[in-house]
Design brief:
Length: 369
């Protein structure tokens, strides 16, 4: 058995987020074109997994399709009906920039099901950890509407499924996608059994969410940890946040399972954000969270793909992540950053101040050094 699993389905690349999104934004003034969430970016990652030889060294796992009942663990029936109806006709927007194409409903069920299958495969000890190349993505989707390319919230459904089927009491959902995971936050805002930690570009999207002051409500106070980082943060700033905030909180929470919303849109070359993480930075994120999973929960770790919009660079960032999870280094080298390293490896004072501001908000609930 290989210790790392990989989940995808060909149909994940067929979800047509297509020309509709740009048409909405441009008002029809320019030719239709794929906007942002392009299936080719994800397909190119899958292709690099194969060309590098890494795919052959992992355990391939087929995703199960989520049932309507599974989706209702989080989403309102009226919203599910809306996605299904759009999918059966000619598509449209299921919320705020959540484009449904023809047939997208079934693909979204398979995407959420892929996240659930990933959970089952680590809980049943088939593999130690899993990367699920889920598409459409999920972390912006709220109970009542889709948003930001996300139809059903894959990680929320997977976490709720983990509690229901495997009786878990403490789950960590870590979200390093550059945008705030507002849908995941909504799901667990009053829940002390699911710790949600989101690292994101400050006030990028959604601009009114993800503030450090938003620490949870009721029983959930202290179990919602927003880490808004300033535009331009690179590897050093992110790793500072991981070491100063994520590590001590996770050590105190002691999760039984870790699920990651892995969006590689904090990359240096992403067109939809302004951060400066390199493939080596993502490698360090993955090594860091893999070590925490080894320390607290026998390595049980599920990564679900979210955003990441640089068709050139996402494959390298995502490959580095799977290399770190599996402990297998391929001979693929990243030359994109040749000569650019100093900037991304510098911790700037305003980045350290942003991390300190989060510690001040959370020090009522957790101990820090
Ligand atoms: Zn994103």
């Amino acid at each position: 058995m290989n210790k790392t699993g990989f989940i995808y389905d060909e149909s994940y690349f067929w979800h047509d987020n297509g020309s509709g999104a740009l048409h909405l934004l441009s008002g029809g003034y320019v030719q239709s074109h794929v906007y942002g969430e392009d299936p080719e970016t994800k397909r190119r990652f899958k292709n690099l997994m194969e060309v590098s030889g890494l795919m052959r060294q992992l355990t391939s796992i087929a995703p199960q399709r989520a049932t309507r009942e599974d989706i209702e663990l989080f989403h309102l029936p009226s919203y599910i009906d809306k996605v299904k109806a759009l999918s059966e006709k000619n598509g449209g927007d299921a919320g705020r920039m959540a484009i449904v194409g023809r047939g997208s409903y079934e693909i979204a069920l398979l995407s959420a099901g892929g996240a659930m299958t990933a959970v089952d495969s680590v809980m049943d000890n088939e593999v130690r950890n899993v990367y699920a190349l889920t598409r459409p993505p999920g972390h912006h989707a709220e109970a009542q509407e889709g948003m930001g390319f996300c139809l059903f919230n894959n990680v929320v459904i997977a976490a709720k499924h983990a509690k229901r089927k495997h009786n878990l009491e403490r789950i960590l959902v870590l979200d390093w996608d550059v945008h705030h995971g507002n849908g995941t936050e909504q799901a667990f805002y009053e829940d002390d059994s699911t710790l949600f930690i989101s690292l994101h570009q400050d006030r990028l999207f959604p601009s009114d969410r993800g503030y450090a002051e938003h620490v949870g409500e009721g029983n959930g106070k202290g179990y919602n940890v927003n880490i808004p980082l300033p535009a331009g943060t690179g590897n050093a700033g992110y790793m500072h946040a991981f070491e100063k905030i994520v590590a001590p909180i996770v050590d105190q929470f002691k999760p039984e399972l870790i699920i990651v919303s892995a969006g590689q849109d904090a990359s240096f070359f992403d067109p939809l954000a302004r951060m400066m993480v390199t493939s080596d930075g993502f490698r360090r994120f993955a090594a860091f969270i893999t070590a925490l999973a080894d320390k607290h929960c026998e390595g049980r770790l599920v990564l679900c793909h979210e955003g990441g919009y640089s068709a050139a660079y996402v494959p390298f960032c995502s490959l580095a992540i799977v290399e770190a999870m599996s402990g297998i280094k391929t001979d693929v080298e990243d030359h994109f950053m040749d000569g650019l390293g100093v900037l991304v490896e510098t911790l700037f004072p305003h980045e350290a101040a942003a991390v300190q501001a989060v510690i001040e908000q959370q020090s009522k609930y957790w101990k820090f050094e």
